Amino acid sequence: MDYDALKERVCAANKEINRVQLAILTWGNASEVDREAGVFAIKPSGVDYDEMTPDDIPIISLETGEKLEGAMNPSSDTATHWHLYKAFPDIGGIVHTHSPYATAWAQAHRGIPCLGTTHADTFYGAVPCTRPLTQAEIEGEYELNTGKVIEEHFVNNGLKAVELPGVLVSSHAPFTWGADALKAVVNGRVLEEVAKMAATTFALNPNLGSVDQFLLDKHYLRKHGANAYYGQK
Amino acid sequence: MDYDALKERVCAANKEINRVQLAILTWGNASEVDREAGVFAIKPSGVDYDEMTPDDIPIISLETGEKLEGAMNPSSDTATHWHLYKAFPDIGGIVHTHSPYATAWAQAHRGIPCLGTTHADTFYGAVPCTRPLTQAEIEGEYELNTGKVIEEHFVNNGLKAVELPGVLVSSHAPFTWGADALKAVVNGRVLEEVAKMAATTFALNPNLGSVDQFLLDKHYLRKHGANAYYGQK
Amino acid sequence: MDYDALKERVCAANKEINRVQLAILTWGNASEVDREAGVFAIKPSGVDYDEMTPDDIPIISLETGEKLEGAMNPSSDTATHWHLYKAFPDIGGIVHTHSPYATAWAQAHRGIPCLGTTHADTFYGAVPCTRPLTQAEIEGEYELNTGKVIEEHFVNNGLKAVELPGVLVSSHAPFTWGADALKAVVNGRVLEEVAKMAATTFALNPNLGSVDQFLLDKHYLRKHGANAYYGQK
Amino acid sequence: MDYDALKERVCAANKEINRVQLAILTWGNASEVDREAGVFAIKPSGVDYDEMTPDDIPIISLETGEKLEGAMNPSSDTATHWHLYKAFPDIGGIVHTHSPYATAWAQAHRGIPCLGTTHADTFYGAVPCTRPLTQAEIEGEYELNTGKVIEEHFVNNGLKAVELPGVLVSSHAPFTWGADALKAVVNGRVLEEVAKMAATTFALNPNLGSVDQFLLDKHYLRKHGANAYYGQK
């Protein structure tokens, strides 16, 4: 079995994280799953984006979460990605960053309400913030439990991962996802821009609520619904 | 009839939106009208700025709002541009972006009062924020109604489009205009910079009002009045 | 008489304003005086920084304020520069910009108190904000009166231009100066950075006062006093 | 004795300060110690980063604090670096900048509490802010006393320099350190990013406290503890 194309896409998506300034240093990682092959590829841990090559990208078993291929250690966040691929069967790529505005909302323990069409074009509702992990969750299988807390929030609140392609982990930072790794990076950019705009918006009007559901419907569905009319398709 | 020059100008103006960082991804569109020919040219929907060529630019009838020429779908905001060209017969180009500070004011449902000469040099008074669209307006011909709500605000408040080349659509984002597409981009840059300065200004002094009318007159008219003395003309 | 070297320096200083992002579009101008020759050179009005050449730089009489040489109109702010060269005989270059943070303080009608050593290294005390110009001053010789209001503030408050190389004009924007045009640009950069830091500082601690005089003395004088020991001289 | 390699590393680290935008103009300096040789190398005072070469880097005696080698004056902050190398025997490089967000916290006289994992990955607790220096300390051996006040804070509060590689000097700016000069620059970048995120976080949630100790332990120790599992080692 040959994962060259998958490794190339994941390497490119990780470099894209850095190019679009979602992460300084090594503060972000992207992965992409090949569900037929039962594997996902992910950034190696602590490697500079500029120096990374497709050969450095580890391949992980979707069944066991163990490394199948590659000389380097996978990202320390690998178990979070692994759990999310299992919890959300419709997603194809995942991105984790510490982009500054989204991270500030996560640190403030606040989800980002939908304040306008920029948000509604990508996220069909508020970008949620998880509950804090417990001491036992943190001292146990921390990265795996991070994935579980994200899944718990989506299940308990009846949220659909495909319609809401991002989350803030409390006291930590954002995860976004999409059809593939590059689309997960795009959703990470949208989330950071939305987080920045929302911070400025609340500074100008602290008592603001979410937009009306019919505006949210209009904008989300004109891009993503059955009758979408944005773009060239 | 040959629209090559118009398409080139509109293609260049759309790339300029991206170059000056008024839009990430595909979050902005520029158009320009040729009133003699009865058409306007506009960005194709969802196309990357880097990949766009003049051949991709659709030509729209000013009379019907329908596409006359071009293989690609025009911007999903085409009906807004169309209505504004009809409502404001003195403008030649229109730009729509989601630039972050102007969008934050729109999301906060606040117009931007004139707080200094930077604003007064381009906008002869506060940059207005429209009323929210109703459910019926959003669920009906949404993009056309966006144009109508902008026109309504200008008519009801006795505002002149040429003197006030921009507006914030509530819960949405800014539109700017000018003598041609490139000048509409310039006005989009001014609006974003003014929106940023105004947010910082209110953080430093929350109780501030507008500048005096005589300062507004002086700055606007030294650049735009009959006796203007700015520049080389 | 040949002003080639002066024109080259002023052209370079104006391009520097743009390179270091103190001004977008044409929102800033630099000038430099040759007191022996009795002239100063200044940016032409409304010309793009990228297109400007030394030949475009007008030469103005220090005695009359009239243009002596050059095909282009001088900056519309020429009379302000002219007055400041006469009011402050120790300065050699002047820069005016609408840099966003300094302009926000000017729009908020607040001088910038000295909050730390970054400020104290360049400005020997608060960067002052002038009183608003009166209607008569604005409707009369506006640009000249802008210079007069700056001078008035320095005279009434016993401030020395060389020790305090910048000012905020109320509802307008900053002016900075220095030994030559390039040093005035450097002081414009310092002012913008100090203005940004001070805005963040007050957000974190709204009740803050100025630093102690002995800290201000230490930092200002280690760079500028008779016993300065910063740098290579 | 030949310090060429040390000078090259210190020259590169100083240029890195500028490349990653921790300092404009000449507002930052880096040094690195060679404890076996009993010397440290540091930036020359007031020299532009672009023009600096390894030959310009002065060599200072760790025993006396005096210059041993080099034509140029060392940084005016040399005595602070000297004292810190003696006070903290486990550190190998030091960086001082006036990066804007970290400086704003220093000017606000506030340490930066640990608000999330971005912070915890590098700093094992709040980044402290020193007490203000007294008039006598400022008018005496100011730069040496700056080092002493930092040491005093760490000693009085039982803090370990290796676990907390940075500090804010009240009314002044940050110092960071690390195993060598380049790692001290990296810690300066982390501190600036953390300072920016924390300012935004408090704007969104003013009453926030620090994260739980077990989250801090988890993140700091997974990168730096005996059982660290981040990266490729």
TrEMBL record, chains A, B, C, D:
Chain ranges of the Class II aldolase/adducin N-terminal domain: 8-199
Class of the enzyme per the UniProt entry, highest EC level: isomerase
Catalytic activity, reaction form: L-ribulose 5-phosphate = D-xylulose 5-phosphate
Swiss-Prot/TrEMBL keywords: Carbohydrate metabolism, Isomerase, Metal-binding, Zinc
SUPFAM superfamilies: AraD/HMP-PK domain-like
A GO term for molecular function: metal ion binding
Source taxon at top rank: Bacteria
This enzyme's EC code(s): 5.1.3.4
Names of required cofactors: Zn(2+)
Gene Ontology biological process terms, A to Z: pentose catabolic process
The keyword Ribonucleoprotein is assigned to this record: no
GO CC annotation: cytosol
Family the entry assigns: Belongs to the aldolase class II family. AraD/FucA subfamily.
Protein name: L-ribulose-5-phosphate 4-epimerase
Species for this entry: Pontiella desulfatans
Lineage of source species: Bacteria, Pseudomonadati, Kiritimatiellota, Kiritimatiellia, Kiritimatiellales
